[in-house]
Amino acid sequence: MHWKYKAFIQNLVASLPEQLALSVYYPIQRRFGGLRRIDPTKRLQAAIETWDRIVATGRNPKGGVFFEVGTGRMVSVPIAYWLMGAKKTITVDLNRYLKHELILESLDYIRTNRSQMEQLFAERLIPDRFDFLCELAEAHPSIDTILTSFQVEYASPADAAHTHLASDSIDYHTSYTVLEHIPPQVLADILSEAQRITKPHGLIVHGVDYTDHFSHNDSTIDAINFLQFTTREWDRLAGNRFMYMNRLRHSDYLRTFNKSGLEIVADDPQIDPSLVAKVQQGDAPLAAEFKDRPADDLAATFAWIVASPAQALAKCG
Q1: Residue 172, helix vs strand vs coil
Q2: Interatomic CA distance for residues 121 and 13, integer angstroms
Q3: Which of 90, 101, 205, 275 could form a disulfide with 153 if both were Cys (CB 3.0 to 4.6 A apart)?
Q4: What whole-number distance in Å separates Cα of residue 67 and Cα of residue 197?
Q5: Residue 119, CA distances (Å) to 60, 107, 191, 262 in order
Q6: Where in the chain are the domains?
């Protein structure tokens, strides 16, 4: 589907009253979108990558308390954390998108693809917990049973910028492909809250997708197609609840992390060489607000950003 048609449909549905919009959009996703066939593998891989990046800093995430920004439709990431040894995961979402039927389908996928899951998690997997999951999946449990069994505390509607959690109460503040959908000032507030609630020796680990998400399903446009539009134009095209993208580049995120009291521990932006060449050759149309940016910054398509509370010593002291 051409991206502008998709944007038109999303804007049309988003113009409806909130509850009606949500009830209309979900069946569309189930029939025509990414929810037609449930495969939680990508989300499980994201949780594993988050776990490994924590381990790479010399920390042991087993027994840790995780916090997830943006639950979405399923709880695949919190379940993966639990399978690897997390104590619990607090997951919050501004919108109550969670769907029982999708969670059951994701659990059934894990259960029926046991060897694939064992290979995916490898030595990280706790066998007893995996056996328990497979047994529970066969029973088609209620959503409350699922959340309780996997030590998931779900809060929605809830604001990740104002969690009401105690200071220094979580070990790891995480998200995957969520931050790009958050307005810049709200993002800064969420990261400031992360600094407050994360323990002195905890970590903030986020995977961010910098691409134009319309390009995921429309091969006629590239990953930076949306950078040709002014902020006003882009808000008119895709400024709705279903496809809002802040278009921040990697340098913007690093700056926001630092201003929010976080110290960058590691970051590794994935840069598309073909996009770099396109920008350098002047073949990528860019709005004025992006024209003076370095090509590498514009051509970054994804990054993991790992940070720690910059005031850790002050917290300890």
Answers
A1: strand
A2: 39
A3: 90
A4: 10
A5: 21, 17, 34, 35
A6: 39-100+150-316
Q: Would you give per-residue pLDDT tens digits along the chain (317 residues)?
A: 689 888 888 888 889 998 898 888 889 889 888 888 999 999 999 999 999 999 999 999 999 999 999 999 999 999 999 999 999 999 999 999 999 999 999 999 999 999 999 999 999 999 999 999 999 999 999 999 999 999 999 999 999 999 999 999 999 999 999 999 999 999 999 999 999 999 999 999 999 999 999 999 899 999 999 999 999 999 999 989 888 999 999 999 999 999 999 999 999 999 999 999 999 999 999 999 999 999 999 999 999 999 999 765 444 44
The DSSP code for 286 is -
Q: Tell me the residue length of the chain.
A: 317
Look up residue 83 and give its two tokens.
């399978």
Contacts of 245-248 with C-beta under 8 Å, sequence gap 24+, read: 245/180, 245/181, 245/212, 245/213, 246/180, 246/181, 246/182, 246/183, 246/184, 246/187, 248/180, 248/184, 248/187, 248/210
Place of tokens 């590498």: 296
Pairing of strands 198-209, 300-309: antiparallel
Question: Looking at the domain that runs over 39-100+150-316, which CATH code has it been given?
Answer: 3.40.50.150
Longest dimension (CA), the chain: 58
Residue 232: both structure tokens together? 């006003």
The span from the CA of 134 to the CA of 226, in Å, is: 43
